[in-house]
């Protein structure tokens, strides 16, 4: 899986890239076909925004389903954490739908 970072209006810290890459790679456990994830980080210059001045958008691209999550926060990491939670919830739902649930009872197997 490829991870692309895009920024608007401000550079991002190197530790943010490490944290984001680690958390995104942990999402591989859901076995959903994702070729790449785009991380879009935006900074709002308006001082009235205050606690919501940073926005992170996660978008999946590829052969699997398209998943998108967006969050606002007081810094990049806080916004990214909220976006990853939403992204993970969507991937979990997709993963659960793809499971094969065999609902046969134990009584029917003995006959």
Provide a descriptive summary of the structure in words.
The protein has a four-stranded mixed beta sheet, with helices on one face. Helix 1 (14-25) runs parallel beside helix 2 (76-98). The protein starts with a strand and ends with a helix. The protein has 111 residues and is of the alpha+beta class. It has three helices and four strands.
How do the strands and helices of this protein lay out in sequence?
Elements: E1 2-8, H1 14-25, E2 36-43, E3 54-61, E4 68-73, H2 76-98, H3 106-109
Parallel strand pairs: 1-2
Antiparallel strand pairs: 2-3, 3-4
Helix pairs in contact: 1-2
How widely separated are the two ends? Answer: 47 Å
Assembly type of the chains comes to single chain
- Per DSSP, the total helix count is 3
| Percent of sequence in beta strands | 25-35%
How many strands?
4
Low-confidence stretches: none
The gross shape turns out to be elongated
Strand numbers in spatial order across the main sheet: 1-2-3-4
Taking Cα atoms only, what radius of gyration do you get, to the nearest Å? 18 Å
Taking all residues together, what is the mean pLDDT? 87
- Give the SSE order as H and E letters: EHEEEHH
Helix content: 25-40%
Sheet having the most strands: 4 strands, mixed
Overall SS class: alpha+beta
